[in-house]
Amino acid sequence: MRRLLLSFIFQNDMALAPDLQSPEPYVISLPPSSAVSPATFEDTLYTNYDASFFIPSVLVARSGFDLATVAIIASLLLLSVLSFLFIFHLRIKSRRMKHLQDFNSLWTVRLLLVTFAFLWAVNETIRLPNVRRKYLDPFLTLNQQTNLCKFHVVLSLGFYEPGFLITLLFLVNVSIKKKNPCRMWALLCVSMVCFPMTLIQTILVYFAPLETELPKFVHGSSILTIDFQGNKTVLCTYPFFSCVVFWVFAIVYALAFLFSCWRVLDFVINKSIRVRINLLSAAVMVALPIQILCLGLSWLWLPEEDGYGWVVLVMFFSITTCMAVGEVILIIKPITDALVAGAECRRRFPGGFRLRRQVVQRERVNHQETGL
Predict the structure, then answer these.
(1) pLDDT tens-digit profile of 44-67?
(2) Where are its TM segments located (predicted)?
C-alpha cells in the first residue's frame, strides 16, 4: 500500500533542503522531514527502522527470495538444455531414418520454443538484485543500471514470454494439420505476431506518454534506493502501462489457446495424447491468471519489501512451471516416442525400408499365386 500512497504524499506543498536535492528518483532511509518537494521526492520513501536491524533483515530476506528464484529458474535452464539435446539428437537421427524426417520438419520451431524459454530464464536471473549487485552493478553506472531494467521489461513482457506462448500455440495448431508448413514460413509467422507486442512495450518503456504528469510507478521500470551506509542500488520494477498491455495480450491469447486445444481434443482419439493436451492447457490457463494477479499485487509493495519478494516468487514459479510443461509435452515426450518407434521399426526391418518394400511385394506375389 505504501507505493500507492506515494502519489498522495507527493502532492504536499513543501520544499527540500538544497543539499538533498537531486534530479534522480530515489529511495532514502531517513527520518521524515517537514520539508519535502514533489518534484524531487516523487519516488522517495522514508523509513524509521534502526540501521543495525533494518539492513541485515533486508539482505537476508532478499537473499532468501533470490536463492529460491535462482533454484526455480535453474531447473528450467537444465530442462531447456535437455530439450536442446533431444532436438539435435533427433535432427541427426532423421538424416539416417527417413520415417523421422516428416516429424522433424519443424525442428527449427521447436528449437525456437526452447530458445525463448532459455533466454527468459537467463533474463530473469540477471534481474535479481543480488546477482546484479555482485556481477553487474560494480561495472555499470546508475544510468546504465536503469537502462538495463528498461531493457529487461521489454525483453521479458514484450519478447521472450510472448514469443514462447505464440510458438507454443503454433505447435499446437500444426499438430492437427495433415501437412506441415515450411520452416521459414513458420518462423516468419511467429516473428510477425511477436513484433507488435515488442514494439508496444518498447514505446511504453522508453517513450512513456504523459511521463511528467503521471506517478513514477505508472511508467517507471526502476527505483533508486540508498541504504544507511550510503550505497546506491537500482531495483527493477514492472511499469503499470507494460502490465496493462500484457494483460490484454494474455486475455486474447487465453481465448485463442482454449479454442486451439478444443480443436485438437475434437480431432485426437489417442487417450495419452488427450491427457497431454489437457495437462498443457491446464498449465497455461493457470499460469497466466496467476501472473496477471501477481503483476497487479506487485504495486502494493516496494521491491525491497518481503511482500514484493513473495509475489515475484509465486509469479516466477507459475511461469517456469508452464514453460517446463510445454517443453516436456511438445519437445521431450514426442521426440522420445518418435525415437522409440524408430527403434522398433529397425528391429522389425533390419534392412530398412527397402527390405520392407521387398517383403510387402513378396507377400503380394504369394497372395496372387494362392488366389487370396
Answers:
(1) 333 333 333 333 444 444 667 888
(2) 67-92, 104-122, 151-172, 184-208, 238-265, 277-302, 308-332
